[in-house]
Amino acid sequence: MSAQKCTVAVCQFTATNNKETNLKIVKELVSEAAQKSAKVVFLPEASDYIATSKEEAKALAEPLSGTLINEYKNLAKNQKVWLSVGGFHELTQTNNETKIFNSHVLIDDTGEIKSIYKKMHLFDVSIPEANVHLRESETNVAGNEIVAPTITPAGPLSLAICYDLRFPELSVLQRKQGASILTYPSAFTHATGLLHWEVLLRARAIETQCYVVAAAQYGKHNEKRTSFGQALGKVVAECPKFRDGHYSNQSVALAEIDPELIRKVRREMPVFEHRRDDIYQLEAVGNPSLPITDNVVYKFSEKVIPESTVFYRTQYCYAFTNIRCVVPGHVLISTLRCCRKLEDLMEPEVSDLFKTAVKVQKVMEEVHKTTSTTLCVQDGQYAGQTVPHVHIHILPRKANDFERNDEIYDRLAQHDRQDSGMPLRSNAEMSEEATLLRKYFY
């Protein structure tokens, strides 16, 4: 998590089907935000355009390699800000099939794309009495991945879009992945926004103990579409709310992200430590890589492993370089939760630990140019465990590295002893190795 306070900006405007006009407005808003010292600028969903028909929506879409994304990248670079393009109609071509994703694109201040999230929950809703008839699935394809938080000047930031706001499971998982900022760029309808918008944003902030940033579309886009605008950043900042008779708005609201406030809130009310994972569980499918951040304590029994020596992390475990190596590339994987034996782990932790072991094994074999590995768990004192915390040894093997192949187990049992003959490595040496290994995972 960033140690410094950071100014962010949320931008609100009334997009239409005129992409050139929309881009001109975006440039004006981002320039204004940059002049006011914002380091991260957030644009609403459908910043590129809001079409008048599904046919037009498809016709106006562009690939990530297209002109418009290039304009956004240059804008971020020229204004020296991180730019959240909250909703871009991403045109893709796979197996001779054209698809459009509603993509949240995060660009850094050098103009490089750092993360892309494809909206998972599509808004297919019909409310006749409110004259709401929208089927996002008629033009867009749903994404299928929760992307890991990205480290930004404001802190670890997770991406979502609009309707995702109604699914608290997503925000809880993003917090568990290490997020301190949740983002919901939106184009809420007036009917639902008036009743639900602020309530849902507050709920996500309270339950996850994260800042919530939501840049919104505002007003009347065409004869068929009106959005409820109010870009929220506690409410620590907001743009004007939609009012009847005021059909367009172009504005910027600034807010300060204070990482120390997040730490204070989580320390005083540690709700995520109180979750009863032994009774109920919420897990993402798969084994996603999570960013290595300083808001995670890497406990190894009574020891704390320096963040600089950690090279890979998941929801339940982490991999780090070893202070004494039996063979070159000897690394360790341990659980984030302190557990003495395998039997003390919950099922998701067991699964995550061994999936991580396989992933780390493949990387270490690639780095050390071999095709064999010894994986070892010393499960308890009499098995040779000297640190009472579940961990796996990953030891890349080569031909004739020991006179007797099984000698490695004797060496492993002795390697923590002062008379083992194996030197202690410096923190600088372990950190240098970890920096190299991170490149294979991130």
TrEMBL record:
Please state which protein family the record places this protein in.
In the N-terminal section; belongs to the UPF0012 family.
- List residues binding substrate: 322, 378, 384-387, 393
| rRNA processing recorded as keyword | no
- Its domain of life reads Eukaryota
What InterPro entries does the record point to? C-N_Hydrolase, C-N_Hydrolase_sf, FHIT, Histidine_triad_CS, HIT-like, HIT-like_sf, Nit1/2_C-N_Hydrolase
What job does this protein perform? Cleaves A-5'-PPP-5'A to yield AMP and ADP.
Show the Gene3D superfamilies listed in the entry: Carbon-nitrogen hydrolase, HIT-like
Fill in the subunit field for this protein: Homotetramer.
Protein name from the UniProt record: Nitrilase and fragile histidine triad fusion protein NitFhit
